[in-house]
Automatic annotation (TrEMBL):
An example Gene Ontology CC term for this record: plasma membrane
Residue stretches spanning the membrane: 36-58, 70-89, 95-115, 127-145
Keywords assigned by UniProt, alphabetized: Membrane, Transmembrane, Transmembrane helix
Annotated InterPro entries: YdcZ
Domain of life assignment: Bacteria
Protein name: DMT family transporter
Length: 148
């Protein structure tokens, strides 16, 4: 797959659509089966099966074994993803899709500011600037506008 900024932008935009759709779908599943945790488990299970099939189809199945030697901190992404799925499917019924998505984005931006500033996990460090703080402030204003 070619690494181009346009492709990356399109993939991230499509992922944003997926998050907006995933939360109410999972919330509806949770209502249907009577368990938000159960719905999150099913969501992760279905996603796991798809990713496993695609990984094997691309010939990267053997690479999965290399994770046994990875630093343990690098394996916590799945925990964070599980929390994300559960928290959004729980919150979407309370906040609505727009406010849930806006708060999710605000949380991502605040964390991204810190991650960029420190250069966490090998990411190139980028200092906090007034423009970046203003961007976060605009998203925070969007959260307020989406709710009130």
């Amino acid at each position: 797959m070619t690494n181009t900024p346009l492709l990356a932008l399109l993939l991230v935009a499509a992922s944003g659509v997926a998050i907006a759709l995933q939360s109410p779908l999972n919330a509806a599943l949770g209502r249907y089966i009577g368990s938000s945790l159960g719905a999150a488990t099913i969501s992760f299970g279905v996603g796991f099966v798809l990713l496993l099939v695609v990984t094997i189809a691309y010939g990267d199945g053997g690479r999965l074994l290399d994770a046994a030697h990875a630093p343990r901190i690098l394996l916590t992404g799945g925990l964070l993803g599980a929390f994300l799925v559960w928290a959004t499917l729980y919150s979407v019924s309370v906040l609505g899709v727009l406010t849930m998505a806006a708060v999710l984005i605000l949380g991502q931006i605040l964390a991204a500011l810190a991650i960029d500033h420190v250069g966490l996990f090998g990411i190139e460090a980028r200092p906090v600037s007034i423009n970046r703080l203003l961007a976060a402030g605009l998203v925070a204003a969007g959260v307020v506008l989406s709710r009130y």
